[in-house]
Amino acid sequence: MPPLDYDLVYRVKRENPHLTIVINGGINTLEEAEAHLTHVDGVMLGRAAYQNPALLAEVDARFFGGETRALDAAVAAYAVHVEKALADGRRLSTLVKPMLGLFNGRPGARQFRRHLSENAPRDGAGIAVLQDALAMVRREREAA
Question: What are the pLDDT digits (tens) for 46-63?
C-alpha cells in the first residue's frame, strides 16, 4: 500500500476551494484531526474510533462547542438503540462488538470487555448483559 500523501490532498483543496474535501487514513488522535482541519473540510476517524471509541466522547466539545460526553451516558444512550434493534431480531453480540474497547485504560475495562464477550453471543442475550457490564465498570471506578 502506498504511503498516505496528505500534502496532495491539501493541494487539491487549495486548488479547488469550492469542493468539500474530507481526509481519511492514518489519523489516530484528535490532535491530528485538528491539524488536518486547518487544510481540509473534514476528517474521518476509522480505525482510531474503532480501537478507542472513547475518543468520540470528546469530539463535540473539541470541534463543535458542545460538551464532553460521559462514557456511561453514551452507553445508556446507545442502550436505547440496542433495545430497539434486539426487538427487530438483531443479535446483541453484533450490536456491542464496537463497544468492546470503550473503557480501555479505565478501571473496569477488562471486566466490561470480558462480560460482553462471554455473554452477548449467547442465544437470547438481552439488554441486561450490557447493563451488567456497565455496572461492573461503575463498581470498579468507585473502588479505585
Answer: 888 888 888 888 898 899
Domains and CATH numbers, the chain: 6-64 (no CATH), 71-143 (1.20.120)
CA atoms of 53 and 122, how far apart (whole Å): 24
φ/ψ bin of 25: left (φ > 0), alpha (ψ from -120 to 50), beta (otherwise): left
pTM of the full structure = 0.76
**How far, in Å, CA of 71 to CA of 108, rounded?**
13
Task: Report how far apart, in Å, the C-alpha atoms of 140 and of each of 40, 48, 113, 131 are.
Answer: 41, 25, 13, 14
**Distance, CA of 116 to CA of 53 (rounded, Å):** 15
